[in-house]
Write a structure and sequence with these properties.
The longest helix is centred in the last third of the chain and has 9 residues. The protein contains four helices and four strands. It has a four-stranded mixed beta sheet. 33% of the residues lie in helices and 19% in strands. The radius of gyration is 15 Å and the shape is elongated.
Length: 81
């Protein structure tokens, strides 16, 4: 139980990296924001008795390219099913 581990170790949050983001999405008690669309979580935060999942990757990507004038973007990667 991730909530138990968070409390035992007094962890208030965790960063999740590849290849564990989809697993973290399924593990979170609640998922907020764009993580619901992406189905992947890169941040877990303990709020009360719940572990809340967030994804900051998409927002960070959009912010990093916001200064450029682009019409199309290609994101290439591999998704294991």
């Amino acid at each position: 139980n991730i909530v138990k581990v968070f409390k035992e170790l007094q962890i208030s949050g965790a960063s999740v990296t590849v290849p564990h983001k989809e697993w973290a999405y399924r593990l979170a008690d609640e998922v907020r924001g764009i993580a619901n669309n992406i189905k992947a979580v890169n941040c877990l935060v303990l709020e009360g008795d719940k572990v809340i999942g967030y994804n900051t990757d998409a927002e960070g990507f959009m912010e990093s390219i916001s200064q450029w004038k682009y019409q199309n973007v290609l994101i290439r990667g591999r998704r294991d099913s």
